[in-house]
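Thread: quick sanity check before group meeting

JM: Hey all, I'm pulling together slides for Thursday and realized we never actually wrote out the predicted structure for the chain we discussed last week. Dropping the sequence here so it's in one place. If anyone has concerns about the input, flag it before I start.
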Amino acid sequence: MITSEEIKRRLWDGANELRGSMDASRYKDYMLGLMFYKFLSDKTLEKYKSMADKGQLSEAELVEEYAKDRAYHGENLDKMIQSVLGYFVLPEHLYQTWLKDIAIGEFEVQKVIDSLNNFERTIAVSGDSDDFQGLFSSSTIDLTDTALGSNLNERSKNIKALIELFQDLNMVALQKSDVLGDAYEYLIGQFAMESGKKAGEFYTPRQVSEVMAQIAAKTSNITSIYDPTVGSGSLLLTVKKHLKEDVQRDLNYYGQEKNTATYNLTRMNLLLHDVRPEKMSVKNGDTLSEDWPEDPSRPAEGVLFDAVVMNPPYSLANWNKSNLKVSDPRFEIAGVLPPDSKGDFAFLLHGLYHLGQTGTMAIVLPHGVLFRGGTEGEIRKRLLNKNYIDTIIGLPGNLFTNTGIPVCVLILKKNRAISDPVLVIDASRNFIKVGKQNELQEKDIARIVDTYVERAEKAGYSHLASREEIVENDYNMNIPRYVESIDEEIPHDVDAHLYGGIPQANIDELKTLQTTVKNVLDNALKPIRDGYVQLEKPMDELTNEVLTDKNITTKSDIIREKSEAFIELYWKKLHEINNIVDVNSLMEEMLVKIKELLSSFDGLDVYDGYQIIAEVWKNSLTHDAELIAGGGFYTIGRTREPNMVTKGSGNKKREEQDGWVGAIVPNELIAKRLYSEELQIIEDKKARLTAVEAELSELVEAAKVEDSEENIALFESIKKNAEGEPQSSFESKTVKAELKKITKDSPSYDLLKKVDGLITEKSSLGKKIKAKESELKEALYERILVLTDEEIDELVFEKWFGTTVYDIVKLIELPLKKELDILEQLHERYAETLDDIDEESKKLEKELEKLMSELVVR
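JM (edit): ok, ran it. Output follows.
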C-alpha cells in the first residue's frame, strides 16, 4: 500500500526531474492540470463501472467495454454519466487511452490537445457547468508551448513522461481517503516554494493558513465561507479541515481570483477535495473593481458569510482602476477611500462588507495597516470606534516565499460589545529556521490559537488593549505599544560590581527555583550584607541537589506515571484504527489531551509537550497509522516493501530495488533488538579494520620521514602519482616484490612483513564484514515476514514512543536548568570586585616596573 507521504514524494521528485529548466510557477499548470484530467477520467470509468455492473473487470478491460457500450448506446450513455457527474469523458479521450497509445507507440500530442478541448463539450448545461468550464483552456495548458520542448518530438517525449507519472494512481480511491487532495495541496505548496516571488499569486504558507483557519473555524454554525482573493483555494480547504464532518457536508464555498490559471487551479483543488460542484461558487474576476458576490434581490447589501478568510496582495498600488467612490457600499463604513497607492484596507473593507453579523473574518496584511496615517489612519480609527477589530496577531518575518517582511493577521467581528478590548498577540519571536524560510512550529500555532480562544494576557506575548489605551495611543495599533517584549538581559548592579555578591532581587526573580526547591536554593546562598548573597556551593553540586530534590523527583514520578498511561491509551487506539478519518481525528485528540495532562503541572511549558507529540506524528505516526488503517496493525507489521534506490545520473539515472524494508518496522531496529550478537560480531570486525587502517596510515607517514628505518624499508612500497609523489597508502604488489629482495630477519624485512600482514588482514576483514552484512540483510528481509505479534508490539512501540515519556518528564528540568544557568551567570558576573581588579592592576604594575628595571641599554 502506498501512503500519502510516498505519493507526495514520488510526484514531487517526478516533477523536478521532468520540468527541467521550466519555471515552477508555469510547470505547475501542466502537471496539476493533467493530474486533474486523470481524476476526471477515473471518475467517468468508476461511474460507468457501477452503472453497467462491470465490477470484476480490470481497468484495461473496463476501457474496452466502455468503448463498446458507447458505440452501441451513443449519447444515451453520455447523458446517463453526465446526469450524475455533471460531465463525462469519451472512451477515445480517456487518460487511459493516452497511456495505451504510449504503450503501443501511437501517442500523439494532438490527441491530448483534442481530448482537453473536447471536455468543454461534455459538460452538462446546468448551474454546475461553471465549475468545469475553461479548466483546460490554452491560456492555462498550452501543449504547444516551446518551454515543454523546442520541437514536437521533444514536447511529445516530455508530455508522455508527465502522463506516465500518474498512470498507476487510482484517483477515485485516493480522493475517498483525502490522500489525493492532500497530495495536490502538497504539490501546490512545493511549486510555491520553487516559484519564489510568484508564489504569492496562488499560495498561503500552511502554517499561516492554519492560524487563520483554526480561528475562523471557531465560529459557531458555519454554513458558508468566502475568500475574495482565493488563490489556489488552500485557505478555504484548511478551514474545511477543522470543521466537523456534518458541517463540511453542508458548507458553501465562495471565492474569487483574478489570475485565470490560478482560478482554474482553485476549482480543480476544491473538486479534488471532494467539494461538490453545487456547493462551490468560484469566479474569475477582480475583487476590488467590481463587487462579488451580489444578491440580485438586495443589490446594496451584498451576500454575507459566516467566515471570510483572505491573503490579498500586499500594499497593491493603483488598485482603484475602476474609479470607485466612497459611496460604494463596501467603503461606506470607512467614510473615506483607501489610498490608491496601497490597497490593503480596500481588501479588508471588501471582506468586512461581506461578513455576517455573527461571523469571523481573518486577513493577513503587512504591519503598515496598524500604524500608517492619512486616510488609512482614519479607516483604522473608524473600525476601532465601531469595535470591529477583535484581535491583532503579529507573525515572524520571512514566512512567505514572495516577501521577507513580517505580517500580521487581523481578526474582525461585527458582534462585539463596545467595551470589549482588542486582543494583541506578539508571536513574532516564536519560529524555527528551515532553509531560507522561517516556520511556525505546531506548538507556535497552538499557542496563538489557544491565546485567542482564552483571551489570555501573557507577559511579553499578549495583551488586552482597552478602548482608553487605544485612544491614548491615537489609534496607533503598532504591536510594541501594547506588548512589551521581555528583556532576557539582566541589568548590571553597580554595588555588586564594587563590593561583590549577587543581588537578592535577582535571586527573588528565579521563580521556578523559589517555588519548587526554595530550601535547596537558600542553603546554597549565604548573606554577605543587606540585599546581597554569595553562592557557597559549586554549580555542579547545586544542580545535582536541585534535580534530585524530593519535590522534583516526586513531581517527575507523577508526570511519568500519567505520561505512561497517556501513551498506553493511544497505543491501544492506534492498534484499532481502521480509516484515514480516524487517523486525523486521533492525532487531534492526542494533541488536545497532552495539553490537558501537562496543564495541571506548574512550572513547565505545556506547548513544549505539545510539540513532542506533534513530532511523533510528523516523524512516524502519520505514515504508519495510514498504513495500519488500510491493512491492520499486525498485517502491516509483517509487511515488507521494495527498497528503491536511485542509481546513475543524467540519461542513465534509474531506480532499482536494493533489498527490502519493513513497512512500519525499521530494519535497523529489528537488527538491534533481534540480531544483537550478529551486529556485535560485525562491529568488532569493523573496529579491528579501523585499527588496521590507522596502523597502516602511521607506517605510511613514518615512511615519508627521510633517513628513518621506515623510510629505508618502506618508501619504495608507497603508491606514487604520475609525478612520482608519495600518496597515502601502500602498493600491495610492490610490498611483496620488496620482500623477495630483502634479507630475512633484517629490520627492513620485518617492517615489510608487518605491512604485508596488515594489508592481507585489511582485505580479509573487508570481505568478512561484507559477507556478514549480506547474511544479516537477507536474514532481516525474511524475518520481517515472520515477526511475532509480541515482537511487532515491542519494536513498533520503541519506534513510536521509545523516548516520549522520558522527553515529557525532562520538561520539568528545563525551567530549573534555565534559572540555574542565570544563577551561574550572576555568580561569575560579580565574582570579581573593584578591589580585586585594583589589586590585580597593582600587581601587574609592579611586575612591569621590575621588568623595566632589568632592561639594559647597550
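AS: nice. The domain at 1-196 is CATH 1.20.1260.30 (Ferritin). The radius of gyration is 35 Å.
JM: adding both to the slides.
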